[in-house]
Amino acid sequence: MLKVERVTKKYGKVLAVDDVSFTVEAGEICILLGPNGAGKTTVIKCCSGLLRHDGVITIDKHINKTIEAKRIFSYVPETPALYDALTVQEHLEFIAKAYRLTDYKEYAEELLERFDLADKKDKLGRELSKGMQQKVSICCAVITRPKVILFDEPMIGLDPKAIKELKKLFVELKDQGCAVLISTHIIDSIKELWDKVLIMNKGKIVSTLLRSEVVDENELEEKFFAATGVSQ
Q1: Where are the domains of the chain?
Q2: Single pTM value for the model
Q3: For 16-60, how does the pLDDT look when each residue is reduced to its tens digit (9 = 90+)?
């Protein structure tokens, strides 16, 4: 569903992403795991079409920057970017209109309830805390019922209840056949969720683990430290 082929990204002389290739299939949760500065966010931004890069990225066989691809994928950035003068409710309505959604209101209400935003519907974007902004960003991303969704460090700033709901949402998206790519540097945050883990370091994918091949959950942590050279 999401296919990344030989993607390279430089910032001047700095090689941020070095010849990276991977796929995320429909109904699969793939984790891009690595220390800070490994290149995870750059990969996510390349996939979302925000950065120019060498190589090819396709979403359901469409080049990621095409309208056809943008109709079927969503992106939750590490730092939420809401409109200051739109309310929570208006953000959802804006996305619904942009994607020409017709039957979304019940799902929107469900999402607002789940993420404790139902009583914040009339608050403006600039009036929300970072954690609340992140919740709105998540709701806006999933309301389109995407076939591919990209999350960049999605749990930062969220309270424990919201993290629990988000983890449930990951599984629901998977069960609906969505390809889910999550970038994180926190191993504990994705334990028991993943189908595939891509360990990234210094711009490269240095190790790939499949759930079907891992017997002990602790093996993920051991592989991470061995592949990245990070001290335990």
Answers
A1: 2-81+147-228
A2: 0.93
A3: 999 999 999 999 999 999 998 899 999 999 999 999 999 999 999
- CB-based contacts of 108, cutoff 8 Å, min separation 6: 92, 96, 139, 143
- Both tokens assigned to 141: 């991303």
Tokens of 113: 């309830």
| Alpha-carbon span 24 to 107, nearest angstrom | 26
Q: Measuring CA to CA, how many Å separate 44 from each of 78, 127, 159, 168?
A: 10, 28, 24, 22
What is the separation, in whole angstroms, between the first and last Cα of the chain? Answer: 35
β-bridge pairing 73-76 and 62-63:
unpaired
Tokens describing residue 177: 């056949």
3-state SS string for the chain: CEEEEEEEEEECCEEEEEEEEEEECCCCEEEEECCCCCCHHHHHHHHHCCCCCEEEEEECCEECCCHHHHCCEEEECCCCCCCCCCEHHHHHHHHHHHCCCCCCHHHHHHHHHHCCCHHHCCCEHHHCCHHHHHHHHHHHHHCCCCCEEEEECCCCCCCHHHHHHHHHHHHHHHHCCCEEEEEECCHHHHCCCCCEEEEEECCEEEEEEEHHHCCCCHHHHHHHHHHHCCCC
113-139, pLDDT tens digit by residue? 999 999 999 999 999 999 999 999 999
- For the 2-81+147-228 domain, the top CATH level (class) is alpha beta
